[in-house]
């Protein structure tokens, strides 16, 4: 019995050593018992901040090598490195008001996951929120404590358990943080146009639903919704799913099994950037709502309009939607 006990202790010690090796810092080779401790160490490591890939935890030879590697890492669709892991732990809260040093409106992507509430478990309750910047860095992630009891955690798709929400940030606090961050210190009424003010451009898929469940109001002029952008829609009234758009336009699969809001944010941001890079013939006043276009089809021009061919009428017509390529104009 003593030999068996000794062998078991030896095996257990060997197993613990092997586990620590899995959680070893690539910069200083320090070992940690748990992945969470390694993540905290990485966040404060100077070497990792300068030469460490936040996606796969690799340490590169130089900052230039890091930039080259990280571009490939992002484009490969690998979203489960340190940023995604820290997001799962709910460790990110970088929602700050910009002091006006950045040029043009900043672009951020938002996604949330909902659990079920109510007696029939069909009421959507916001339970997890993620926001990233244009470089796919996580700005904000938190689990959200709904204001009413959860009756269905929808674990198969959300991965959310009761312990995630027990001490989570209350919905009202999340709402206030996100609202202030998006408006960037400006009142909502002051946000008039995509080129005016300091408010941020908000990217997402089905943002009406997400913002409603978060109880956040945001002007439609600052929203870029991949579910409502006409070039990405099936028809003028039907939307494609984010899963389909990611496969068709970006070439990789998402939302298989448990769905990660960070993964959704990255997909919508990449779709937005791709659509923004479209090259069109520039028009001085491209939108039908612009005051300069009001007289194109005015009643006093009726006789002139009747003499026009369909091609001529098409030439003076204007689109009813804001094309995202105008964001980079």
Automatic annotation (TrEMBL):
Main location: nucleus
Keyword Transmembrane helix: no
Keywords assigned: Exonuclease, Hydrolase, Nuclease, Nucleus
Gene3D superfamilies in the cross-refs: Ribonuclease H-like superfamily/Ribonuclease H
Source organism superkingdom: Eukaryota
The name this protein goes by in its record: RNA exonuclease 4
Alphabetized GO MF terms: 3'-5' exonuclease activity; nucleic acid binding
Domain Exonuclease: 106-281
Localization terms from the record: Nucleus
């Amino acid at each position: 019995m003593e030999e068996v006990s000794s062998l078991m202790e030896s095996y257990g010690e060997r197993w613990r050593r092997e586990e620590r090796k899995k959680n070893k810092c690539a910069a200083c080779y320090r070992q940690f018992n748990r992945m969470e401790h390694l993540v905290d160490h990485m966040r404060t490591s100077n070497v990792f901040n300068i030469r460490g890939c936040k996606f796969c935890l690799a340490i590169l030879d130089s900052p230039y090598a890091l930039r080259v590697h990280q571009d490939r890492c992002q484009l490969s669709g690998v979203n489960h490195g340190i940023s995604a892991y820290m997001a799962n732990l709910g460790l990110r809260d970088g929602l700050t008001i910009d002091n006006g040093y950045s040029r043009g409106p900043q672009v951020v992507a938002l996604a949330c996951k909902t659990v079920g509430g109510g007696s029939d478990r069909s009421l959507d309750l916001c339970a997890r929120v993620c926001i990233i910047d244009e470089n796919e860095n996580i700005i904000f992630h938190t689990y959200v404590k709904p204001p009413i009891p959860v009756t269905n955690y929808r674990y198969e798709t959300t991965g959310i358990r009761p312990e995630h929400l027990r001490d989570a940030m209350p919905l009202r606090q999340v709402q206030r943080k996100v609202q202030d961050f998006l408006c960037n210190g400006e009142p909502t009424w002051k946000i008039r146009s995509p080129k005016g003010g300091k408010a941020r451009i908000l990217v997402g898929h089905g943002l009406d639903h997400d913002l409603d469940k978060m109880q956040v109001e945001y002007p439609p002029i600052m929203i870029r919704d991949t579910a409502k952008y006409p070039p990405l829609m099936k028809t003028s009234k039907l939307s494609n799913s984010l899963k389909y758009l990611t496969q068709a336009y970006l070439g990789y699969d998402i939302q298989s099994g448990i769905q990660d809001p960070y993964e959704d944010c990255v997909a919508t941001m990449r779709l937005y950037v791709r659509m923004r890079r479209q090259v069109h013939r520039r028009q001085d006043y491209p939108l039908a709502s612009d005051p300069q276009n009001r007289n194109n089809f005015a009643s006093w021009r009726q006789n002139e309009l009747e003499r026009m061919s369909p091609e001529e009428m098409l030439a003076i017509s204007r689109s009813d939607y804001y094309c995202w390529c105008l964001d980079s104009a």
